[in-house]
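Regression check, alpha-D-galactopyranose case 678:
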Amino acid sequence: MFKGKLLHGGDYNPEQWLDCPEILEEDIRLMEEAGVNCVTLGVFSWAVLEPEEGVYDFNWLEERIDRLGESGIQVILATPSGAMPHWLTQKYPEAMQVQENGKRNLPGKRHNFCYTSPVMREKIHALDERLSEQFGKKENVILWHISNELGGNFSDGACHCKLCQEAFRGWLKKKYKTLDNLNRAWWGRFWSHVYTDWNQVHSPAPHGEWSMTGLTVDWRRFVSEQMSDFCRSEIQAVKKYSDLPVTTNLMAFFKNLDYNRLKQEIDIISWDSYPFWHKSKDEVPEAVWASANHSLMRALKKGPFLLMESVPSAVNWREYNPLKRPGMHMLSSLQAVAHGSDSVQYFQWRKGRGAYEKFHGAVLDHLNGKNTRTFRDVAEVGERLYALTECLKGTVNVPKAAVIFDWENWWAVEDTTGPRLDLDYVECVLAHYRAFWEAGIEADLIGMDEPLDGYRLVSAPLNYMYKSGYANKVKRFVENGGLYVTTYFSGAVDDTDLCFTENHPLEDVLGIVPEEIDAPSEEFANSFSYQGREYPAVRMCAVVHPKEGTGVLSVYEKDFYAGAPVVTRNSYGEGQAFFIAAQSDMDFLRVFYRDMFQKAGLQNALGIELPYGVTITERVPQKGYKGQAAEEGVVFVMNFRHEPAELSGLGEWKDAENGEIVSSVLRMEKLSCRILTK
Ligand code: GLA
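Current build output:
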């Protein structure tokens, strides 16, 4: 619970309306009506805060913050580095990014700055320090918001300028000490790619080097480091005169920046969620995608996070942009809270009149003031969140299962060449996560460096790279009674993408010896039977040999490797490890994980089987919460179907919002969320 409240509000850009005082006054009045208690100011205000180099104008901001304060509205104050003013790019073009092709960007757009550039840092720090001095102790300013969606321009997010190349070489020198070490780690003698001078190292580029995954993965690590360092430097500036906590808004499954690295710099995790609702009548894939991202954000710091942005109606940047159907705004907002968010914030409060985002959904449209369906939807969320304050106070989600989702593995498995070029790590993780979601078993999405303590079941699909220490951690986890699941193309390479030789690092734990991987065409697809039903084995089919004592639960049915295992089980210490050799379909994963949940002693909070499209999560009083936490936990039941759902066999519960007793059967409206307690 952030500052004792569930936050409700969003990005507010009054600088676009400074010449319309009546609009600014109306904003405050309507915010009160919409139950808004928190807005984010200043995200893209650089040109207004510092209209000329070294000339600052904070009066409008001060006036807005004070006016919001009078109405009891809190402020998240952003640093405006997300977009550079024209005076800056004109005078200091070196502050703009250089793309992979070596071309420097032209001015414009946003997220366009070089993370290394000393002049960019100098200019933004000067502004940040002044913001810190003037607003860092203001009563209604509660949180710093650094920049905006770091790394989020439309290419690889990185800058490839000379300064970045030098910084990359410096980073490599620190890591490898000698060129010999670097050449060994990157397998440099291949195609004569031996480096004899540090200055020969260049960032990956389509018209240059991209054939060494050791290099591409190290470059991505460096880029994450550089972005995190930029963030840290802004944090130092805003903390100069202020003790407020700091966040930066993250994005869904964002490949350019390792959030497990960035999280070390910030106090609070927040993210921007834009699922593609109504892409089809079956909302489950998008609901799973959103839940997985919420679970990832929650797991970064193992605790509450903030939903920093979401759209109250439709975005404008997809090929087509459906309006949220009745019920979906409430449901998707509560979905965030159900997974541990302590806020529902929007982009944005009021639609601008011009430029790129004028048709992006906002709480207030161009026409009709508060007389819109969107405004009513938002006000309803505000009211419901307010009413939920007490029963969610000090509550958190404590999953007993985890799915490994690791950035370095993501980069490596998709950068490497073979066995297929169309491997999609996120898609694979989502398929496994979906089995948890459908069963209502919550899972954290965690990186390979995270501790596994406290989990009973850990699943690591497509876990191609084993970072140093990972195999030993898994060994201990299984030895101590944990249940571990992994798949084809796991444990192939080390941190720098060098293949393991001799033994698979988890050979003893998994009880298998991998030999080959078939990446067959559709015509050569295989199949296997599991518990009396046949399933497809497609796209990736590992051929492995069971070691003595390993249970073979299923075998390939066709081709020259018919009879080789598809699903194996091995007991190791107190625990068990399962290996899935082939890619299959959702029907298989559903049945397979049902067994895993049973073996791990995991059941959902209602202890029942859920109808398709319905999932549940649980928030329980946090141990060691400072303050008066709620006495009981609550269970969020969410129906993502466009039709009513009925859950039966759930015993006696109480509706946490209206006190109604729910006995055995729970009836749910279409696209709705109920919150139960004991
Ligand atoms: C991102 C940005 C916002 C806005 C929204 C629009 O999340 O942070 O500034 O552009 O997208 O969807």
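Comparison notes: The radius of gyration is 26 Å. Residues 213-238 form the longest helix (26 residues). No diff flagged against the previous build.
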